[in-house]
Design brief:
Elements (H helix, E strand, L loop, with lengths): L14 E6 L18 E6 L5 E6 L8 H6 L1
Antiparallel strand pairs: 1-2, 2-3
Length: 70
C-alpha cells in the first residue's frame, strides 16, 4: 500500500486500494498494440481522495533502447 497513512485532504486514516483495468489500462507511448498495465490506486475510504497511482507492471514501460543496454 502507500507509504502515507493518512489522507492529506480529510485526515482520515483508513485507506483502500482500487484498480483500473480493461479499456482504462495505460500503454507505453509509441506502442499502441501493447497490452499495457492496470493502474493501481490508494484511495481514502472517507472522502475518496486518490493518494497515489502506480502501474501494476512497470517493466512493460521499458523502452527498446533501455532493454538493449542491459
Amino acid at each position: 500500500m502507500s507509504e502515507q497513512s493518512k489522507c492529506p485532504q480529510c485526515g482520515h486514516d483508513e485507506l483502500g486500494q482500487g484498480v483500473l483495468s480493461g479499456y482504462s489500462q495505460i500503454r507505453p507511448v509509441g506502442r499502441p498494440l501493447s497490452i499495457g498495465s492496470d493502474l493501481l490506486a490508494v484511495i481514502c475510504t472517507s472522502c475518496g481522495h486518490i493518494l497515489s497511482w502506480k502501474v501494476a507492471k512497470p517493466a512493460k514501460f521499458i523502452s527498446g533502447k533501455s532493454k538493449e543496454k542491459k
